[in-house]
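Session log. Operator J.P. requested a structure for one protein chain; no other inputs attached. Running the standard single-chain path with token output.
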Amino acid sequence: MKRIFIYLVFFGLLALSGCEKYLERQPDDALTAADIFLKEESTREYLMNVYSYMPRENEHNGDFHPWEGSSDEATIAYIGRPFAAINQDLWSPSSNNYSNRFYDQYYKGIREATYFMQHVFESPLSETEAAIWYSEARFLRAFYYYNLMRLYGPVFLLGDELVDFNDPNLGDRERNTWDECVNFVVAELDASAEQLPASWGAEWWGRATKGAAMATKARLLLYAARPLFNGADIYKGVIGRNGPLFPTGYDAGKWQLAAAANKAVIDLGRYSLMGEREMDNADYDPYAALHDLYNTRTGENTEYIFTMEGSAYGFRRNSSPQVVQGYGGVGLTQKLVDAFAMDNGRYPITGYTNSGAVPVIDPQSNYSETGFSMFRHPIFGVELNTFKMYQNREPRFYRNIFWSGLPWIDGNGARKIDDIQFYRNGNSGPGTSHNYPPTGYTGQKFIDPTVSYRSDNWGILSWPVFRYAETLLNYVEALNEYDPQHADILFYLNKVRRRAGVPNIEEIYPDAVGNQQHMRELIRHERFIELCFENNRFFDTRTWMIAEEENNGPIYGMNIWGASNHLPTSDFWKRTVVQQEGGYTGIRIFTPKCYLFPFPEKDVTLMDFTQNLGW
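Structure written below.
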């Protein structure tokens, strides 16, 4: 196998649907350890196979994961994708709902990692190089456990045992406790971090690093400190054969562990916010900093800690309107549009009444949802008559939100379409196709206006699995929960805001300083904005245990079906419940059992273990 093929693994090509995993086999297959580990080349190929179980985080259509389509930041038009059944609480332990993409695949990856670890020192690699490759597999095994845990809670820890969950003679087993799982994975990540390099050359972008191991630990410990996994009352009755599977009491010390783990990533001194060095300059341009953040590849992106390297086709085409050869079926919710601050730093919407239909507007924000006026778009540089809702917002708004009536400009002006129409029978709206955003908004994140996109050329994307801004927000969240007076809360939260071009938090909300509840709300709000469409919100609302409020009930957008134009007098500009997402109405159902995924019924039957609550 040529080296270029190995490089392509890191672009996600081995993980394409329908492709078989290279070298996937049972231990007693004809391809023995002696065959695989006899040569450096086949040893490397086997390691690449272990990587191939990485989740397809950079997909954007609701098929490979539900992180966007089943969160309150997005809604997806495409029919037949399993995220829609989750939104309607129509899933069950016997339905497929991603189990073969997550549960089955992660345990296969764990098994392959373990097998590699058991044999890599038999290869002709030097002792030093073998130790690094061993640590890569060790990291991946821990990373796959982390992915299982954020979905299922306590899972099965296999250690160095090569278990095949399809073996009909497997026998009874019980899940390990949550704390056992956390302790095991943290120990594995610590051990792998000691051996992993700080970085790799461009040929190997996407391989595990010391920072990747530390960031995984930091996020896992944050999740472990949050309400879902820190003494939640609903799980106290989930008892396995050996006792409670979940913590039965709240432990404030877990916040301190989470803070320390995230501070350790900061203290590496290796990462910084894109644009951070220029933030104190009088001519600092937050628009340029945000462009560079979203569109700079791993080696030059100071903020990216761990990435998935691959084609940008799935993400960019699903974000781009029909008329520019996109699919455009992933829409931003009105709630996300509302969340971005005004240019004065205040959040315009403080809540909703009438089941989310009517926003409660902060009068100090200078936000208006009435009328149209002329406005110059700060990125596209065009003057247009547009809804006042979209005017005078912070820079992240314009780097993330694309609304109906804007022009599409790419290739530095090489291609321009004057008017994108998300209304019924418009050039990118509903009609004969389901390739339209259900809310009348698409996302601009990771869309580079300097590149001219075509259906066969959407570029390459370094997808941020972990990035530094999240680490800063993780750290301040954890600090606020056990030491709300800590000076680092303002220091690091303000770094994120200043890079975005908005004032420091204490200037806008002085009463929040030292006020744990108010600061908690502001930190969560910043996460919603800063990390949107990076697959965090799905897990944030669940681990905070607020999904019953935030992701339950109607999803709102513009009135795309009720109008045939978007003139200022059109009914298009009315908050309206999404007519359909994935074939169902845009009124979601979230019940307490939905905080965690159900274990597949076939496995529960085979091993007779304790199912998750409500399933």
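Operator note: Confidence is low (pLDDT under 50) at residues 1-30.
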